[in-house]
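1st attempt posting a full record on here, be nice pls
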Amino acid sequence: MKYIFSFLILATISVMILSFRVNESYKQQYYMMADFNINDFTREIDFENFIEDYPNISVTTLPLAAIKAEYYITQNKIVDAVKLFNKGIKANPYIGRSEARLADIYFSYIYIKDSAIYYADKAYHLRPLNSKHFLAHLKSLAVKNQIEELDKSIKNNFSLLQQIDGKDQYLPTSMYFYLSTIYQYRLKNKKKYDSIAKQALEAFPNDEKIKIISNFIIFGKDSVQKALALDKKARGQLDNNNYKKAYDLFSQSVNFWPTHKYSLQLAGISAYLGKNYPKAIFYLEKLLEIDNPTDGQTEFYLYESYKKINDSLNACKYYNKLLLLNPNLVDKNTKGCD
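the predicted structure (as tokens):
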């Protein structure tokens, strides 16, 4: 009986110690998970007393060693981070989080091609719909120069997401990397990669980085950059009421980047303000062929331009459209038309 009692006391003490560690870990995780969710690991932490072995995973199943490793990366202690990510793989070998981060390290910090490819592929096969893993996989294929596999992977990823009606906030990053990678191959199969770039523009219409790289593929990097430089100069002229000069610069920009909506609209508006109504109509009609702006500005200047050249039929057409889009732009004293 005496031995049983002693055993129970020792067991109770052990349980109390373990319970204390779990409780302390939960306190640490409160802050660590907050940092993880915003991807900010600049907080000063007590590295020596950070609990990572028992428990070894967080309440969300992330390995605690892997979370600790992120703080080491922020401090540029890459070797220590690598050790912890490897420890994280042992703690939870099923989610691929540590493998994806090791791939990042071997791609970006201490470039070791074989290790980068190994961990990138491992992370991807564990969770292919996690776009951080997918991005690492794309890098792996690019490093191996497997362009056909790269093309297949981006299509497969979209297909899988559609099957589950899934959305991934990091997918635009993967698409941007993919487009950046295939840019160097665009002239080998111009029709194919132009088509892919146009699909990307449709899929991510509000992503500025994808818009730029997609148009690099379609029109060439030099042409797009020249167009942007001309736009900047033209905007300055427009703001200073130099309408003819602004129009000349915006129209030159359109020559380099024919589908740039910004340049098309401002070329038309500048032409109108410079009383060149046929050119205003030309550029604004061209804009409406590729876009459907909803602010009514394009329709307003088309209405006014057609009115100036006494084309009542088209003036009425855009007057009625303007009433639907933005009636505030219509002069209340203007006589309506049927």
